[in-house]
Amino acid sequence: MDSLGSELSKYLLLAWLLPLIGFAVEVLGGYWGNRQDKRAAYLAIACIGAGFLLSSFTFYRWGTETHWQAFAGSVSESGHASVADPSGSDGHEKPDAAHHPHKAAGTETTHGTPGHSETAGAHDDAAHHSPGPSYSGTFYTLATFGSLTLSIDYYIDSLTILMFCMVTLIATCIHIFAVGYMSDELTDEYVDHSAHTSDGHHVHRPGRFHRFFAFLSLFCFSMLGIVLAGNIFQVFVFWELVGISSFLLIGFYTERKSANVAANKAFIVNRVGDFGFIIGLMILWTYCGTFSFGDQDLNGHEQPGLFSMIRGSDGEITTVGDDVILKTVGHNGHWEAPHEGESNRTLPYFLLVIAGLGVFGGCVGKSAQFPLQTWLPDAMEGPTPVSALVHSATMVAAGVYLAARFYPVFTTEVLLTIAYIGCITLFIAATIAVVATDIKRVLAYSTISQLGYMMLAIGLGGWAAGLFHLITHAFFKSLMFLCSGSVIHGCHHEQEMTKMGGLRHKMPITAYTMLIGVIAISGLAIPGSAALIGFPIAFSGFHSKDAIVATALAYTSLNPIHFLLFLTPLVTAGITAFYMFRLWFYTFTGKPRDEHIYSHCHESPAVMCMPLVVLALFAAGCAFGGENGPLYHMIGNSEPLGVASGVEAGGAAGVALPSHHAIHEVHGTAGVVALLAAGLGTIVAFLLYCRPVVDPESIKRQFSGVHGFLVEKWQFDNLYDVAFVRPSHIVGRWCATFDKEVLDGILHSTARTAIWIGTIDRKFDETIVDGLVNVVGNVTRSVGMSLTVFQTGRIRQYVMFIAISVVALFALLFAFMPKA
Amino acid sequence: MDAVSLNYVLAIGAVLFVCGVICMTTKRNGIGILMGVELVLNGANLNFVAFSRYTSLGLDGQVVSLFVIVLAAAEAAVALAIALNFYNNHLTIDVDRGDELHG
Amino acid sequence: MDLIFLSVLIFMPTAGALVLAVLFNSKAVEPMRVFTVVVTAITFLMTLQLWMNFDPGVSGIQPEANGVSVEWIGTWNIHYRLGYDGISLPLVVLTSFISMLAALASWSINKLHKGYFVLFLLLETGMLGVFLALDFFLFYVFWEVMLLPMYFLIGVWGGPRREYAAIKFFLYTLAGSVLMLIAMLMFYFGSGGEFSILKLSAIGQGRVPGVQFDEFTQITAFILLFIGFAIKVPCFPFHTWLPDAHVEAPTPISMILAGVLLKMGGYGILRIAFPICPVGAQYGAYCLVAIGVISIIYGAFAALAQTDFKRMVAYSSVSHMGYVILGMAVWAVAQDGNIVVTSGRDYWLMGMNGAMFQMIAHGISSAGMFFMVGVIYDRVHHRDLNQFGGLFALMPLYSGLAAGIFFAGLGLPGLCGFIGEVFVVLSTWNFSPVLAIVAASGVILTAGYILWTLQRVYLGAEYKGPHADEITPMNAREATIGVTLLFMAIVLGVYPALMFDVMNGSMAELVDGMDAGLRAAQQSGASITMTPTP
Q1: In Å, how far is A27's CA from the nearest CA of chain C?
Q2: Residue C532 located in a structural domain
C-alpha cells in the first residue's frame, strides 16, 4: 500500500504547488501590462480549480483503493445506533460493510488491530473502532544533524484528503466570486473612499486586481501546506506563511490606516500564539527527537513518529512516576514501551502537558480563541472574499485542524484547558455579536464563536464532532461571508446594517442563499421529520452542532463538576440563532432604513451569484445523513486511537472523556434541547426585528451599561493596549535610553576620564617635570650671579685672591696634613 | 762661604717673592705690576739656583733659572706691548681702569 | 598551486586598488566605478570556483589538511598559512558576494571617488584574508588591515557625526584586538612557540602528547578572546558602536559592515576561541547563551524605540546576531561516571549549524535592509521613520523588494532568516529551558518592530516627509541589487541544505573535537564541575 501513499502524495503535491506557481507567475508578471486585464484572476482560478480536481481525483483514487471502506462507518454502525439517533434513523448508509473495519487497506502505518479491543475494554463495541490507514513520507530533507532530521513531509489520511477537497472547493468558489467583487480594481485610477490624504481628498491609485489574486494564491499554497504537512515543524512553517498571507490580504488596502493596523495586529497577535507553539516544538524536539506525525523509515531503520512515540499501539500514555515512557520499541507501525532495564527515552509528564498547551497556544492565536480573539474582528478590514476564505473557512479553522491532528499528544489536562478556552470563547464572541451592527463584524464574531464550539468539542473528546463542525462551518460561513460581500458590493461598500433593510426584494439570490446559511448555523431542523421520513430535514449546521452538544452532555454526565461546559454551548446555541436571524432580518426584511442606499442597490452579477448557489448547496447538504452520513464517516476514519472508547477519570485534572457509546445514548436528549434553544433564539429575533413587538432600542437603553461593555468588546482591546502594547513600547524606550545614557554614558565617561587623565598628565609635565629642570637651571644661574661679586675685573684683586688662596691652602695643608 | 747656608738664601728668595707680590697687589701702574712680576720671578730663580748649589740637583736648577730669565724677557716684551695698547685705549696705564672683564 | 590561487584571490582587490590608484584619472568617476565592480565580480567568481572545488566529504581543512603555507617570519615560527573548511568557505563566498553588491551600490558616493574605491578594495582584501588565514599572527594582521580602511571609509565618506562614529568604531575594535593579542601571546608561549591555529587547536583539544593548555590558560584566554570577538559581533553590552557606525557610514559600507564585518566576530569564536579553549568554552557556555538571549531581546526592544530608519535596522542586527552567540554556545553537559561529557551532541551540532546559517542569512538580509534604507535615503535625504509613508504607491518595485527583505529579517519561513533563528531556538531547550523560552519570545518583538516599520515607511495614504517630488522608482542598477539579495534569501530559505551540506562536516568535527578536548582536560586533572542550570 506504500505505493498508494506515494501516488496520492504526488497528486496532492501537485495540487499544493499549483497555487505557488500561480503566485510566482502573478508576482513576476506584474499587472500584465494592462490594469483592465483579468488574466491574473483566470490563472489563479485555473491553479486552484486544478487543485480541486486533483484533490477530488485523489479522493476517488483513495476511495477505490480502500474499497470505500471508510464510508462503511466504523463507529455508529456498532449496533447501538438505533438507541441513540435523535432523528430516529438507524443508519441506512451502507450497513453492509459495517463490521469489517480492519479488513482493507492495511499498511505499515495502519494503527489498531482486532487484538487490542480486549485491552481497551470489552464492554464497549466502540473499541472495535480502528483508524483508517495513514500514509507518510518525505518530499525533501532540509537538514540532518546526526540523528536529527528536519524535512518537508506529507501525512495523508482521510482527514487530509477531506480538508484538501474542502479548501480547494471553497477557494475556487471564492476566487470566482472575487472576480466580480474585485472588479472595481480593474482600473487605472481607483478611488479609495475610505482613505484620505492630509488635505482631505480621497486617495487615487492604480487598481490592484492582479495583486489580490497573487496574494490569494499564496494563501492557498500556504493553507494546503498546513493540511499536507507530515511533521509539526512543517505545520509551523506554513502556519507562519498563512499568517503573512493573511497580513498581506488584510492590509490589501494599504492606504487605509485601519487596514494596516489590523494587519499588523493580526500578525503580531498570532505571533504571541506562535511563541507558545515554539515552546511546544522545543520540548517535543528535545525529548522525542522527531517532529514527524507518522512513523518514518530512515535508511532502513524505522523511527516512530510523535503519535506512535507518545501513544504507542494501544492509544495509552505510559507513565512511570512522573515520566512518560516514549514508545520506541517495535516496528511496522506497532510501538511499545521498552521493558524494564532497556534504555528508554522519557519525557516528564508536566513537560508533555506544557508542550500540549504550547502547541494549543498556536491554535489559540490562529483560531482567534480567548484570550487572543481580538485580531479577527479587525481583520474584516480586508476585502470580503478574504474574510470568507481566510478568516472564516480555512485559515482560522487551521487552529482547530491542528488541535485535532495533534490530539494524540494532548493529555487530559490539556484537553480540559482546550474545552474551557473554547467554552469561554464561544460565549464571549456570541454576546458581542448580539450588539455588533457592522454586517461583517457580526459574522466575524460568529466565526470566533463557532471556532469555540469546535475547540470545545475537541477538548471534550468529541474529536470527530469538532472536525465535523469545522467542515460544515467552512461551507455555511464562507457562504454567509460571500453573501455579505454581495450585499456590500450591491450597496456600494456600505457595511452598516443600520442603513440596510428590505434588501431581499432587490437581491433575492443573495437573500435566500444567505437564509440557508443562517438556518444552517442556527442549527434549525424540522422537529419530528426524522421520525416521519427516516432522517431529519435539516441543514448541515444542525448535525454538527448537535454532535457537539451531545458530546458536551455526555461529558457533563461523566464529570458533573464541569456542567458549564454543557450549559454554555447550549445557551450560546440560542444566542447564535438570535444574532444570526437578527442579521438576516435587519438586512433583508422590513423597510429600507436608508432610501439612498436602497435605491442604488442591485443584485450582484452571475459570476458572484454562482458561487453562492454552489456553496449554499454544500451548506445545506454536505452533512447529509448526520452521524451516519458519508462526511462524518470519512472524518471518523481518521480518528485517533482510543478516542472512541473514552477515557477513565484520572490524571491531575481528574476528568473522564465520554466514549462514542455514551455520546450516542444522550444524543436524543441533546438534539431536542439544542433545537429548543435554537428555536427560542430564532423566535426572539423574529419578535424583535421582523415583527417588532418590543423595540430593541428600548432594551438597549435599559441595559446601556451592558450594551456599552459589549460594544467595547469586553474591553479586551483596551486591556491589551494598556497591559502589553504600551509597556513594550516603554521598555523599548528604556532600552534605547539605556544604550544612550548608560552604555554610551559609560563609554563617554571613560573617554572623558582618558582626556582628563591626559590633562593631568600635561599639568604634571608642565609644572613638576619642567619645573624641576627649571629650578636646577635657575639655582645654577643665581649661584653664578651671586659669584660675580668676585669677578671685579681688577687685576690687583685677582693677584690678591691668588696670594691669599695660596696662603690659605698652605695653611690648610699644614693644619690637616698628617705629620710624617 | 759655607757660613752662608741654604736657609739664608731661601729667606732672601722669599723676601723678594713677597715684595713682588705686594708690589703686584698695590701698584695701580701697569709698569709697576710688571716690575712686581719680575721680582716674583727672580725670587723663584734665586730658589732654583740655591737648590742647584746646595743639593744634588746639579745644573738642572741653573738651567731652569736661565730658562725663566729668557721667558721673563719675552714676557716683558709682550707685557709692554699690552701696556702700550692699553694706553692707546684708555690714555692711562692705571690697571684699575681696565675692568671690562668684571662679572 | 593552491597557495598561489588563494593568494591571488586574497590580493586580487589589492591589485585592483593599485591599478586604480596609479592608472586612473581621479576625474574619471564612471570608469572607476565600473572597474571596482569588475574587480569585485572577478573575486566573487574566484570564490565560486573555490566553492566548486570544495569537497563536502572532507571535514578538515582544504585543500590540504594543514593548509597551504610558506614561512614568513622564521625566527618566530610565523607562517603565511591559508586554507578553508566548511566554516570559513561560506563566509568567504558571502564576503565576495556582498562586496560585489556593495560596489554596485557605491554610485551614491559623491566625493573623493578614487580614495573611496581604493580603500574599498583594500577592505575586501582584509576581509578575505581574515577568513582564509590559518596562522594566528596572519589572522591578526588581516584583522588590523581590515580595520584601517573601514575607519577612513566611515570617517571621510560618512554622515554628519562621522568622526565620532569612526573613532568609536576604531577604538572599540582596537580594544578587542588588544585582548586577542594577549590571548595570542598566551598561546604562543604556552605552546612553546606555535602560531598555527590548527596546531593550537590540536593542543587545546589534547591531541598533542606532552603539551596542553591548562585549565587556567584556557579559561583566561577564552574570556579574553570572547570579549574581543563579542565586540565585533556585537553583543550586549558591547554593541553601542554599531548603531553609530551604521548610521554614519555610507550605504555600501553599512552593507559590508552588517553583512560581513559582524560575521568576523562569530567566525573568530568558531575558528579560534572554541577549538583552542574547549574547557573555557564549557566554562563560559551559560554566560554566552545568556548574553545571546539578552542581545536578542534587548536589540529587539531597542529597535522598537528607534525613529531613525537606519538605527532601527542596526539594532535589529544586534538582535539577530544574538542568535549566533546563542546557537554556538548551547553545549549541554552531563555527568558520566566521574567526568563531565557532552549531552545531546546532536542538539549542540544543530545549534552550531543554526548559528552559522544565521550568520549567512543575516549577511544577506541585513545587507539588503541597509541597502533598502540607502535607496530611499538617496532620494529624500532623511531617515525619520515618522516622516515616510505611502511608498508602496510611489515605488512599487522597491517596496515589494523591501517587504521581501524585511520579511527575511522577520524570520518568515521560506526566507533565509527563519532557518537560522528557528534551528537555534529549537536547539536551546536542551541546554536551558528558561533561556529557550526567553529567546523564543523574541519572535513577537521581531514581528512587532519589523511590521511597525513597514507600516510607517511603505504603507499609508501618502508620503509625509520632505523632498516628495524627488521620489522616483528604482533604477535598473538598484533593482539588480535588490532582486539578487531577495533571490538569495529565498534560495537559502527554501533549500538550506545548500549551506548545511557544506558546513555540517566541519561543524561535526569541531563539536566532536571540543568534546574530546573536554574529556582530555579532565583526564589530565582539570576539574569541571557541572552546575545545574535553569
Answers
A1: 10
A2: no
